[in-house]
Amino acid sequence: MEIKRAGKFDAERAKANGIALQYWSRLQKGEVIEADGITYTPDMVLGPARKGLKVTYCTDSRPTEGIVEHAYESDLFICEGMYGEPDKVAKAKEYKHMTFYEAADMAKRACVKELWLTHYSPSTMWPEEFMKSVKGIFANSHAAKDGRTVELKFED
Fold this sequence. Notes:
Layout: E1 2-5, H1 11-16, H2 21-28, E2 33-35, E3 38-40, E4 50-58, H3 65-71, E5 76-80, H4 89-94, H5 100-109, E6 115-118, H6 131-137, E7 141-143
Parallel strand pairs: 4-5, 5-6, 6-7
Antiparallel strand pairs: 1-4, 2-3
Helix pairs in contact: 5-6
């Protein structure tokens, strides 16, 4: 999920383009206005687009380049980590899941800000015990639990 973010309103640009004050708010909200035979567009009053927010969620999958591409520069990447035990790679492959380490590697390659591991195997009683090794691959990793929340904020 991605929330795009328009550029900041630039009053000086609006004035320089001869746009009447009565149209500023509507243009800032993305509306195109036809008035007196002139077309006014939002790009006439807005600066460059700003960074929005992006959350990527993935479960029940083996690692793929497609996941890395979709997760690229996500603010939050929520990804399955079925197995924390390093010796369960073969089992992860057999059942088409991934390990904590594979998820962390994808987070690193996707340049995400934060990784939440989820969807643990019933055999993984204490996912936290594997996090030191996971953080060695991707430092901002967390063994997520039900009810975990975060407030994502737009950058200035």
